[in-house]
Amino acid sequence: MKPTVRAATLQGSDGRPSVGLLSIPRYYNHGTQLQLHALQTAIADLGYDCRVLDYRKEFVARLPVGSRLRTALAHPGRVGPALVQRGVDRYIDSLQSRALQRARSFEAEELRIAQPLLRRFDDFHAIADRYDAFVVGSDQLWNPLGHLGDRAFMLEFAPPRKRIAYAPSVGVSRLEADAVAWLRDGVRGIPHLSVREATGARLLAEIAGVEAEVVVDPTLLHDRAHYERLAAGATRTRPRDPYVLQYALCEDRYLRTQASDLARALGARCVVLPKHRVDVQSRSRNTIKAWGVGPREFLDLISGAAAVVTDSFHGSVFSILFGTPFFTFRRYDDLRHGASFSRVEDLFARTGLSDRIVGLDSAPATADRLEVDFATAHRALAAWRTRSRHFLASALRTATASAREAAGG
Q: Which stretches make up the Polysaccharide pyruvyl transferase domain (predicted)?
């Protein structure tokens, strides 16, 4: 049973300064859970009592029926596929019940989620004095396509001296006027400012005149050994025979064909993490559908694969950390996700792995391209990790000292 976590006070229960970490704790995506665990652990390793704030955002009510009907009539070609995909999503969810259980077990075992439950911005005022510092990050928390106007993700409920941004992503390259105002006003109130991509730093400099440190994704604050320990707790055994792992978040048939072809070329099976209708419908004898995969099992599958074929940022990250040969595909069928590909490009440029990107205009994912220069990539990551940890340590030290001084301590 998950223990009840008491909300922190200005001093943690063991005397350490307290830090409230704001992200998306109840979104059961492998990368989201692992990056949150990674950031919480990194903060704790630096000597702080870090608790994840239980923000379960109260979303705006659905559009009125008349508005939805007008939208459907204006775009009739989208209605059928949307209804089909919704049914497929529900079917996949029913098959993935064990994966959800494992994700929740990971949450209970690895995340320290604080009370109270937070639904609206006004709820945060009750906790503004309970922590010495607040950290917002990582993930696409500053993406206006999903969080436009959310003042919580700008930490506006807390005094400016307590605000730290660690590696949030803007996720888009162009902004509408309302998004410009939200981001500009929000980031100007955060004295300890960092982002995950160089494109995001350039955008904030342009619209707000601020300088943001470009830091590693939280998952990269730790090395391979850290994730081997997590993977050791996997409860679903991976295949004994060689396999290629396919982890595709978008419904890209080109990626899936390439994964299958690569597996056959290597004399291996293709292990698929089902996400879409095309995955469920596949009847290939060479394919293994991997149901019931939680964060630990996800890590274990990547570490043991002969190769990984993915369009996922974190699928790429863990392939790099484990030294597993991989290919990362551009997303062409989803403009919303495609806009966030800059995080992949930025990471690969820094690590010398840009040749791992596969698109319609590049060489395919073939067996003769599996040699990867991980030694150079790991050296680059080690240096970037050191700088990023220094940023985080300095920000926390300054913020918590200021909070104690303001409290008269």
A: 29-329
Give 38's Cβ-side CA count (13 Å radius): 29
Summarised one tens digit per residue, pLDDT across range 264-316 is 999 999 999 998 888 888 788 899 999 999 999 999 999 999 999 999 999 99
- Alpha-carbon distance of 126 to 29, in angstroms, equals 29
Q: Residue 391 and residue 397: Cα distance in Å, rounded?
A: 10
Tokens of 119: 């639904």
Q: Is residue 12 part of a domain?
A: no
Does residue 116 share a domain with residue 171?
Answer: yes
With the CA atoms of 103, 29, 42 and 53 taken in that order, what torsion angle do they form, in degrees rounded to the nearest 10?
A: -80
Domain count, the chain: 2
Q: Are 264 and 286 in contact (CB under 8 A)?
A: yes
pTM, two decimal places: 0.88
Can you list the positions of beta strands (E) in 162-234? 163-165, 192-195, 213-214
- The Cα–Cα gap between 404 and 27 comes to 33
Cα–Cα distance measured from residue 196 to residue 142, given in angstroms and rounded to the nearest whole number: 11
